[in-house]
Amino acid sequence: MKRGLLAPGSSTLRRLVTEAKVELIPMKSLERAISELRPGSHISMTCSPARSIEDTLDECEQLLNAGHTVTPHISARMVQRHEHLVAIHERLVELGIREIFVVGGDADPPGCYFDAIEFIEAFVALDDANGAEHRQVDHIGYTSYPDTHPFITTEQLHDALHRKQQLILATGRTAHVSTQMCFSADQIRNWLKIERASGLTVPVHLGVPGVIDKTKLMTMGVRLGVGTSLRYLSKNKKALGKLMTQRSFEPDMLLKPLARELDELGIEGIHLYTFNQVDATEQWRERTLG
Question: Which is it for strands 267-273 and 248-249: parallel, antiparallel or unpaired?
Answer without folding.
Answer: unpaired
